[in-house]
Design goal:
313 residues; alpha/beta; TIM Barrel; 10 helices
């Protein structure tokens, strides 16, 4: 990572649900150069990302002087009662690939599923829960389920490669990829050169990773970033500087591997943000949070590149 930083933001923190045109404009006015778009599910993908809407979004993005860093869409997995494994919806993912390509993105981001498609309680609830657990069922075949995930992402990577896209996995607590080692294992099994990591310290940190270790382990498989901060007990998405993550060490590690991609802010739990629990448009407080985050990260980046900074490679 050189002396210059290029910042972007996720659209959904400004507007959890579409339309996203106003979110794009606000992101540009906050000083960003990039934006990230999302489809939360197949229905939303079909209903919102029509050819007419994609043309309109492309016009707004270019008109604001922005570029689209990537398109977020989780490869869907469904579970049927009594089945030994879940089943992927690869047709849905292929639709997302088509939308991403039409939007001009070179990257599509997805999380891996929860085992057997069964969501676990949001980790944000963990500090106040007396017992923290999740159900299991005797018929579940754990080895077959992982092979199912591997096979699905192999096909997803092939579909993306056909459209000239790379696939970035976003680590997430309790999913198949929640840490660096899980990502390395998936890369080894899928064997697709266009498979890499969406580096998200706010998810890696509460899952037990030191985020800058992850950078040094994954190296050129770091395809994209989602930056936010937390205390390490939950995956809260505060602005960098409000939690315990060592951002200077992260920038030093990114410089060591030569990462030159955008820094995307994802401030889901910052004051004023739009959120799945309150989907109204973000208040002006989020614009301020985004600007403060950018200023703070520029300072940490300068520290990381200072001559006296300890070597991390």
């Amino acid at each position: 990572m050189g002396a210059c930083l290029s910042f972007g933001s996720t659209a959904w923190t400004f507007s959890w649900l579409p339309p996203y045109e106003r979110a794009i404009q606000r992101i540009a006015r906050a000083g960003c150069k990039h934006v990230e778009l999302v489809a939360w599910n197949v229905a939303g993908l079909q209903d919102y990302y029509t050819s007419e809407r994609i043309s309109a979004l492309n016009a707004v993005i270019s008109g604001e002087g922005l570029t689209l860093t990537n398109f977020f869409f989780n490869l869907p997995f469904a579970y049927s009662e009594g089945a030994p494994t879940s089943a992927p919806n690869l047709d849905g993912f292929r639709r997302a690939v088509d939308a991403a390509a039409a939007l001009g993105s070179k990257l599509i981001t997805s999380g891996t599923p929860y085992p057997f498609g069964r969501p676990i309680r949001p980790i944000l609830q963990r500090p106040t829960a007396q017992e923290w657990t999740a159900p299991t069922e005797l018929q579940w075949d754990w080895s077959a389920e992982y092979e199912n995930v591997v096979g699905a992402f192999a096909q997803a990577c092939a579909a993306a490669a056909g459209a000239g896209l790379r696939v970035a996995i976003e680590p997430h607590p309790y999913r198949w990829v929640c840490q660096a080692q899980g990502m390395l294992r998936l890369i080894e099994h899928v064997r697709a050169p266009n498979l890499g990591l969406n580096f998200d310290p706010s998810h890696l940190f509460p899952s037990g990773d030191m985020p800058h270790f992850t950078v040094l382990l994954l190296k050129d498989r770091i395809f994209n970033t989602h930056f936010s901060d937390n205390e390490g007990h939950t995956n809260a998405h505060w602005r960098p500087g409000r939690g315990k993550i060592d951002w200077t060490a992260i920038f030093a590690a990114l410089a060591a591997i030569g990462y030159d991609g955008p820094i995307t802010l994802e401030l889901e739990d910052a004051p004023g943000a739009s959120h799945y629990t309150h989907t109204e448009e973000a208040s002006p407080a989020l614009d301020r949070e985004l600007k403060l985050a950018i200023a703070y990260l520029r300072e940490r980046h300068a520290e990381a590149l200072a001559p006296e900074t300890a070597e991390v490679a």
